[in-house]
Each structure stands twice: as C-alpha cells, then as structure tokens.
C-alpha cells in the first residue's frame, strides 16, 4: 500500500520517530483513490455526517478539520450543530433522520456530550452500520468476538502504525495505559487479536513504571501531560502516545502527549510525536471507516488495508 511505503521512507529520514502525519496523508490518498473509483464506476459518493452539540472550541476546530479532510477525499460532509441546551430528544430526532438518509454512510457524534445527555443512549441510537466511531454496543461486541465490525478510529490508526513498524505483532508484550471505551479497551482488543500478550493499566494499577518496563509495545491513553518518563520504557520498545493535552507555556499554549517525549525518544526504538502522531491517523481512519461503511451499504467489495 502506498501509505505504508510513504511512511517507511519518512521514518527512515528521522530514525525512531513515527511520522503519523505522513502515514495519515498516505491513508487519505488511498481513501481518495477508492472514492474516485466509486464515483466513476458506480455513481456513489460516500457521505459523513458529524454532529456537534455545544461550542467547545477544541471540538469546533476538530470538527472543522474533519469536514475539510472529508471533502478533500472527495466525500460529502454534512455538519450539524446543536446548541449546548438542545434536548436529548432533539439529538435523537436528528440521529433518526441521518440513519434514514441514504446519502449518509457514516455518523459521528462528537464526544463528550453535555452532561444532561445520556451518551450511551445516543451512541446506541446510531445505526450500527453507520457507526464509523465503532462505539455502538453491537460493534463493541463484534470486535470483542473477532467478527467484522466498525473499528474505533484511534485504536485502528495506532494498529496501522504498529503493523507498519513491526510487521507481525504476535507474542509481543503490549501494555495499554487507559481503559476508556473509546481508546484503551478497543486498543487492547485489537492487540489481543494480533496475538500480543496484553496488559491494561489504569489509575488503580500498582507500580505502573514496572508494568511499563515490561512492554515491547506501550500505548499511552491517559490524558495526563508527559506522565510516562523515559526510565519507564524498555530500551527499544515501540511507544504510541495517544494523549492530546493542551498545556500553558508562558503566555501561550501547546499540545503535549501523555509521554515525556524528550526523555523517551532516546530509549524507545520508535515513538509517535504529539502533535503529528496518532491524531492525524484518527481522522484518516474516520475517512477509511466511512468508505468501508459505504462499500458495505452498497454490497461492494471493501478496499483492502483500510480496516482489520
Ligand atoms: N489522538 C487522538 O486521536 C485521541 C486522543 N485522545 C486523548 O487520549 C487521552 C485519553 O483519552 P480517553 O481514553 O478518552 O480518556 P479517559 O479520561 O476516558 O480515560 C483515561 C484513562 O487513563 C487512566 N488514568 C488516569 N490517570 C491515571 C494514572 N495516573 N495512572 C494510570 N492510569 C491513569 C484512567 O483510569 P481509570 O479508568 O481508573 O479512571 C482511564 O482509564 C486524552 O489525552 C485524550 O485527549 C482521545 C481520543 C482520540
Ligand atoms: N465521537 C468522537 N470521536 C472521536 O474520535 C473523538 C471525539 N468524539 N472527541 C474528541 C476526541 C479527540 N480526537 C482527536 C482527533 C484528532 C486529533 C488531531 O488531529 N490532532 C492533531 C493536532 C491538532 C491540533 O493542533 O489541535 C495532532 O495530534 O497532530 C486530535 C484529537 C478525536 N476524538
């Protein structure tokens, strides 16, 4: 696959740093090629609907980026914004309309939702076939039992990077820090599927540093800026930093991961930076999942290499 070749070339230029931005550009180019073919051969245009409730500035930036990249891939983007005070019934009615709309192949409801809404009920109202986040309980169950599912974008992106770097993952010790439904748990499921020996660590884990030192693959999805230090890392390990933390630096802010990059980069065999690591892969995989959902909806063969 071109995206893999592209990433390998780039990784070689800066040894040890995994260029998620370049790899994601390759994935998006693959998606765009398939989208163009769907259009020319079948007259079908994949469509992604993104729903944002409220006005969180970080979410607004993220939703705008998704819209831009969706259109760049040749797909249709439908953006729906509801006010912070919208009722759950209003959101449910919108989801029902999107479920019934044949031009919409993927639906993403940006999380977190305002506190007065029941996020589980909202997610489970999405047609599982259009659930491009892979958060619906049916997709969670399908993934957990090794059946064909929609796979959550962030863990899918992490797995693509790991496979590109390491090839066969079987038998490797993988430690995932974090057990959220959107990152930690599905990441653990995917690594188990790859025959890794998986440990899931969390806030009650005893001696996290010692647990991390056993990891050939370390995935950090904690939400604590620079918590994982270089001396927690097994020399040569592959480190995937999912964390996106905005911290103050002087009178400005910057993004840092959950891993202390400066102390980790000399110990790890390879590491993803923040920004430019997992984040761009998440959006690329969202587009890949939308394409996959569109192919399935139309009874067409799915592109290879874009899902597991
Ligand atoms: N790059 C991307 O595309 C994405 C990035 N993110 C980022 O990833 C990070 C994690 O997100 P998400 O999974 O939603 O976060 P959650 O807050 O839902 O989960 C955090 C997890 O980390 C664990 N944890 C918290 N503190 C510690 C600690 N001191 N030691 C060990 N474990 C701890 C928690 O444990 P417990 O369960 O015991 O509370 C929990 O399981 C965030 O920085 C987020 O911004 C998220 C989604 C996509
Ligand atoms: N239903 C739902 N699905 C999600 O997948 C989802 C969500 N809700 N809520 C929020 C989190 C967070 N998330 C990110 C995706 C991309 C970047 C990303 O592209 N980051 C860039 C930097 C962007 C910047 O500079 O701000 C990078 O790491 O290089 C970040 C974060 C998806 N999430």
Protein traits:
2 domains, 16% strand, single chain, Rossmann fold, 5-stranded parallel sheet, globular, binds NADPH dihydro-nicotinamide-adenine-dinucleotide phosphate, binds 5,10-Methenyltetrahydrofolate
Topology record:
Blueprint: H1 2-13, H2 20-42, E1 47-53, H3 57-72, E2 76-82, H4 88-100, E3 106-109, H5 119-125, H6 137-144, H7 153-166, E4 173-177, H8 184-193, E5 197-201, H9 208-213, E6 217-220, E7 238-241, E8 245-249, E9 252-256, H10 261-264, E10 270-271, H11 278-297
Parallel strand pairs: 1-2, 1-3, 4-5, 4-6, 6-7, 7-10
Antiparallel strand pairs: 8-9
The structure holds NADPH dihydro-nicotinamide-adenine-dinucleotide phosphate and 5,10-Methenyltetrahydrofolate.
Structure in words:
The protein folds into two domains: 42-130, 3-Layer(aba) Sandwich (Rossmann fold); 153-280, Rossmann fold (3-Layer(aba) Sandwich). The protein is 43% helix and 16% strand. The protein has helices at 2-13, 20-42, 57-72, 88-100, 119-125, 137-144, 153-166, 184-193, 208-213, 261-264, 278-297; strands spanning 47-53, 76-82, 106-109, 173-177, 197-201, 217-220, 238-241, 245-249, 252-256, 270-271. The strands form three sheets. Strands 5-4-6-7-10 form a five-stranded parallel β-sheet. The longest helix has 23 residues, at 20-42. Mean pLDDT is 95; it is low at 1-13. The structure holds NADPH dihydro-nicotinamide-adenine-dinucleotide phosphate and 5,10-Methenyltetrahydrofolate. 5,10-Methenyltetrahydrofolate is lined by residues 61-62, 108-111, 133, 153-154, 244, 255, 274-276, 279-280, 282-283. NADPH dihydro-nicotinamide-adenine-dinucleotide phosphate binds at residues 154, 177-180, 182-184, 201-205, 208, 221-224, 242-245, 278-279, 282.
């Amino acid at each position: 696959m071109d995206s893999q070749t592209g990433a390998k070339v780039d990784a070689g230029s800066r040894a040890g740093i995994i260029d998620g931005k370049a790899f994601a550009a390759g994935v998006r180019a693959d998606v765009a090629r398939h989208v163009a073919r769907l259009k020319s051969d079948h007259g079908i245009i994949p469509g992604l609907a993104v729903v944002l409730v409220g006005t969180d500035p970080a979410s607004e930036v993220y939703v705008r980026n998704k819209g831009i990249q969706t259109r760049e891939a040749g797909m249709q983007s439908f953006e729906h914004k509801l006010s912070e005070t919208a009722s759950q019934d209003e959101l449910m009615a919108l989801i029902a309309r999107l479920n019934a709309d044949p031009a919409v192949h993927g639906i993403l409801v940006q999380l977190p939702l305002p506190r007065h809404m029941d996020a589980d009920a909202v997610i489970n109202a999405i047609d599982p076939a259009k659930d491009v986040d892979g958060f619906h309980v049916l997709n969670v169950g399908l993934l957990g039992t090794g059946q064909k599912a929609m796979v959550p974008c962030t863990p899918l992106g992490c797995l693509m990077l790991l496979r590109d770097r390491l090839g066969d993952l079987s038998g490797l010790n993988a430690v995932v820090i974090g057990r959220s439904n959107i990152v930690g748990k599905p990441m653990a499921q995917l690594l188990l599927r790859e025959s890794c020996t998986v440990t899931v660590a969390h806030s009650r884990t005893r001696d996290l540093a010692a647990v991390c030192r056993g990891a050939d693959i370390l995935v950090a999805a904690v939400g604590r800026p620079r918590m994982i230090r270089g001396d927690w890392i097994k020399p040569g390990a592959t480190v995937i930093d999912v964390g996106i933390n905005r911290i103050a630096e002087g009178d400005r802010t910057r993004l840092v991961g959950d891993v202390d990059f400066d102390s980790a980069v000399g110990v790890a065999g390879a590491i993803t930076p923040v920004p430019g690591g997992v984040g761009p892969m998440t959006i690329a995989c969202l587009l890949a999942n939308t394409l996959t959902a569109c192919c399935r909806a139309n009874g067409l063969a799915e592109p290879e290499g874009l899902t597991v």
